[in-house]
């Protein structure tokens, strides 16, 4: 099985993949691991891979173009098309059943996010599945990618492995994050939502809160069970439920 890992920090993988069981598995050609530096596919002389988010706010967002080009280059070099995974706290929680399913693939392309995350259009165009290793915050997707590769590799024929258990913590804010966008305004025919370009910070905050609630409601409804809602959140959640039922047309 092969793993192509798209990252801003390929050197992080040298140690973990050059020791112990994974080292022996690579030497036996049971697994093939390649890291791809996203910076190599940046379009400017400064190798820029992140930009401030549209609509304002703290942090930076990884640009869509370098990730897409790195992904396309990787796909073109492999004989078999691979499933693309984004390591994300918003993804499906990693479990042994999920590991077993993924171990049946011929290969995986794994994208490691950083900063505030990746431009939403990466998710919409090339990502097949988002995976989280637990409800806690890390500095990037590299460590989760290592966990994913390790957990899958141990199930492959000829690779010695055992089953681990893990603990899950709660998200500090109780909700999944809203979508992020940065330049350009249009990528692969997909546009940044108009509200983020409006300059109206009140509307932007409302949109973000609503998108956050919507994602949590659709993906991790369990996180809402014990949450204390503000009046605005109650109102937004009602809107979301009506929209999902097709009773509101925007």
UniProtKB/TrEMBL annotation:
Keywords: Cytoplasm, Methyltransferase, S-adenosyl-L-methionine, Transferase, tRNA processing
Molecular function (Gene Ontology), one example: tRNA (guanine(37)-N1)-methyltransferase activity
Pfam family for this entry, one: tRNA_m1G_MT
GO cellular component: cytosol
TM ranges: none
Protein location: Cytoplasm
Residues of the tRNA methyltransferase TRMD/TRM10-type domain: 1-225
GO biological process, one term: tRNA N1-guanine methylation
Catalytic reactions of this protein: guanosine(37) in tRNA + S-adenosyl-L-methionine = N(1)-methylguanosine(37) in tRNA + S-adenosyl-L-homocysteine + H(+)
Top enzyme category: transferase
EC number: 2.1.1.228
Keyword Cytoplasm in record: yes
Binding site for S-adenosyl-L-methionine: 113, 133-138
Record flagged with keyword Coiled coil: no
The protein's assembly and partners: Homodimer.
Function: Specifically methylates guanosine-37 in various tRNAs.
Family of this protein: Belongs to the RNA methyltransferase TrmD family.
HAMAP family, per the entry: TrmD (MF_00605)
Name by which UniProt lists this protein: tRNA (guanine-N(1)-)-methyltransferase
